[in-house]
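Saturday, quiet lab. Running sequence design on the C-alpha cells for the scaffold JK sent over.
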C-alpha cells in the first residue's frame, strides 16, 4: 500500500539525523532546546545526542505522568527557556509521549507569544494521535486538557524505531487509535490493522501503517482544525472510553487510554447498529476481536449510572444532549448522533455480556 502525502510537515521516517539536521540548521546556533521526560532521557535522547549538531542543545527533563500535566510543569518550561536565552526565533523540540507534547506545545505557544515547536513522539499513541493536529494544553482543577490552545507544530517526526522499547500494553494502547482511524475512514486501513501480527512486529510494515493512520487523522484535522464539526469523527469510542478510563481510575484499577477507547468502541458500535444501521453481525465480530486482543475489562450494573453521568460531561455534548460519533459501515462516519439513556444502558449491558 502506498505512503500518503501529508498537507502539514509530517515526516514518518527512521532517518532522524537527516530530517532533524535539516530542521535545526534553520535556527540560530544556541537557540534550539529539547524537553524530555524521565523515560525519553534514557531511551531516546542518547540516539539524538550521537549527532554532532545535537550535542550542544540544552535539555530540560520533566516528570512523566498525567499528574504532572499542570501549570507547574509549564512554568518549568518557561523558566528553562528564559534562563537559556530563548527568543522568538528559537525552536523547542518535544521528545516524548502525548502528555509531553501537549504540555510543551502549549508552553511554546505562549512563550513570547509563540515559539516554533517540533514534536518527536516516542509512543505509538502519541505518534498516531496527540503529536498531530495542534491540540495543546494542560489539566486544570482536576479537569483533563481544560486549559490550552490549538496551534500546529512546525514539524512532526515519527520514527517507529523508538517503539522498540515500548511494552505490549502501551503498543496496544496506541493501536486502538489506528483501529479507530480504519473504522471511521478506511476499510483498507482497518483490514491491514487486523491482519498485522502485533506479537512479532515488523517495524518496516508498521512504519507504512503509521503513515496511513496519521494521514487519516490529518484529513479530519485539515478539514476542521478547531473541532467545530467533522473532526468529531476522531472521537469514535471516546465518549464511552473516557467514562471507562475515569471510572477505572476512580475504582483503583486504572486502564490505559487506548484500552479504554477499544472497550468504548464496543459500546459505540452497538449504538451504531441501533442508530445508524451497522450490521449487528459485524459488531459481534469486532467486539470479540477486541476482547480477545485487549483482554476483558468488566463493569457491574451498579456502575452504569456513574458511567452515564460521566458521558453527560463529554466536551462534544451540546444543549444537554449526549452526542456520539457512530459508523453506519466500516470506513464511514456520522457525527452528533444523539442516543437516549435507555439505549446507552442497553449498550453497556451488551458490553458487559461480552466480557463474561
Ligand atoms: N484526539 C482527537 C483529536 O485530536 O481530535
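Result came back. Writing it out in full:
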Amino acid at each position: 500500500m502506498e505512503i500518503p502525502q501529508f498537507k502539514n510537515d509530517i515526516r514518518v521516517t527512521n532517518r532522524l539525523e537527516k530530517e532533524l539536521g535539516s530542521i535545526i540548521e534553520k535556527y540560530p546556533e544556541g537557540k534550539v532546546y529539547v524537553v524530555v521526560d524521565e523515560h525519553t532521557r534514557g531511551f531516546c535522547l542518547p540516539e539524538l545526542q550521537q549527532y554532532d549538531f545535537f550535542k550542544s542543545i540544552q535539555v530540560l527533563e520533566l516528570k512523566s505522568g498525567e499528574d504532572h500535566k499542570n501549570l507547574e510543569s509549564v512554568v518549568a518550561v518557561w523558566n528553562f527557556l528564559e534562563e537559556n536565552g530563548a527568543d522568538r526565533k528559537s525552536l523547542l523540540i518535544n521528545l516524548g509521549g502525548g502528555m509531553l507534547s501537549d504540555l510543551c506545545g502549549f508552553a511554546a505557544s505562549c512563550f513570547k507569544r509563540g515559539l516554533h515547536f517540533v514534536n518527536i513522539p516516542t509512543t505509538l499513541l502519541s505518534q498516531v494521535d496527540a503529536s498531530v493536529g495542534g491540540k495543546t494544553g494542560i489539566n486544570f482543577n482536576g479537569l483533563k486538557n481544560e486549559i490550552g490552545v490549538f496551534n500546529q507544530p512546525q514539524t512532526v517526526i515519527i520514527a517507529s524505531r523508538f517503539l522498540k522499547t515500548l511494552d505490549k500494553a502501551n503498543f496496544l494502547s496506541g493501536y486502538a487509535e489506528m483501529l479507530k482511524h480504519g473504522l471511521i475512514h478506511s476499510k483498507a486501513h482497518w483490514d491491514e490493522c487486523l491482519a498485522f501480527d502485533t506479537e512479532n512486529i515488523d517495524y518496516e510494515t508498521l512504519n507504512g501503517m503509521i503513515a496511513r493512520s496519521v494521514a487519516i487523522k490529518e484529513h479530519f484535522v485539515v478539514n476542521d482544525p478547531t473541532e467545530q464539526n467533522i473532526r468529531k469523527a476522531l472521537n469514535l469510542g471516546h465518549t464511552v472510553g473516557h467514562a471507562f478510563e475515569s471510572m477505572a481510575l476512580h475504582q483503583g484499577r486504572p486502564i490505559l487510554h487506548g484500552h479504554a477507547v477499544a472497550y468504548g468502541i464496543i459500546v459505540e458500535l452497538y449504538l451504531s447498529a441501533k442508530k445508524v444501521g451497522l450490521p449487528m453481525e459485524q459488531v459481534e465480530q469486532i467486539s470479540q476481536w477486541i476482547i480477545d486482543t485487549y483482554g476483558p475489562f468488566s463493569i457491574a450494573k451498579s456502575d452504569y449510572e456513574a458511567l452515564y453521568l460521566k458521558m453527560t460531561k463529554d466536551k462534544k455534548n451540546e444543549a444537554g444532549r449526549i452526542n456520539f460519533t457512530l459508523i453506519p459501515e466500516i470506513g464511514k462516519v456520522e457525527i452528533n448522533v444523539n442516543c437516549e439513556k435507555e439505549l446507552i444502558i442497553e449498550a453497556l449491558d451488551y458490553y458487559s455480556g461480552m466480557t463474561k
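Notes for JK: Residues 129, 133, 135, 227, 231, 234 surround glycine (CB under 6 Å). The longest helix spans residues 203-223. Ask whether to fix the surface positions before the next round.
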